[in-house]
Design goal:
It is built from three helices and ten strands; from the N terminus they run αββββαββββββα. It is α+β, with helices and mostly antiparallel strands and about 160 residues long. β7 and β8 form a beta hairpin. About 25% of the residues are buried.
Length: about 160
């Protein structure tokens, strides 16, 4: 059992603050790797997850990316840190939390992409102007900022 599950046993559904990291993976064609998630059902998002005790945000990013994709990255580049009232979540089971998310991007991966069937339906690479519509709201914000900073040739983002 992990830190979050242990903590929930103590506090129940009360609001908590969690720290997480995500990694925008960019392939050699400039496409972005997105994960179609099991939760929320069918929504697309960026690989990542929540911090365990003793981890740095970089550790979280690398661990979650590997757990979900079997891909490794060396260099992580910071996109931004996201927090505030708009990052409040009420899960289907009633758990409430605010998330502080550190978003990174990486351009070079090692390994072969393998889907963790427990968390993911599938992974696909998308060109920036062809992103799916059903993207997790907070991940859409991250992608929009990333694309604005790194793909300035795009006049509009989905």
């Amino acid at each position: 059992m992990g830190y979050i599950e242990d903590l929930r046993k103590i506090v129940g559904h009360r609001p908590l603050i969690f720290v997480g990291s995500v990694v925008v993976i960019v392939d050699e064609q400039g496409r972005l790797l997105l994960q179609q998630r099991r939760f929320p059902e069918g929504a697309w998002g960026i690989p990542g997850g929540l911090m365990e005790l003793g981890e740095s945000t970089e550790d979280v990013a690398r661990r979650e990316l590997f757990e979900e994709t079997q891909l490794l990255v060396d260099e992580l580049k910071l996109i931004n840190v996201y927090s505030g009232p708009e990052h409040f979540v009420r899960a289907a089971n009633g758990d409430e939390f605010f998330v502080v998310t550190t978003a990174y991007y990486a351009e070079n991966t090692k390994g072969d992409l393998v889907v963790d069937q427990g968390e993911s339906i599938q992974f696909n690479y998308f060109h920036p102007h062809e992103l799916p519509e059903n993207i997790v709201k907070s991940h859409r914000e991250i992608l929009d900022e990333f694309l604005l900073k790194h793909y300035s040739f795009l006049s509009t983002v989905n």
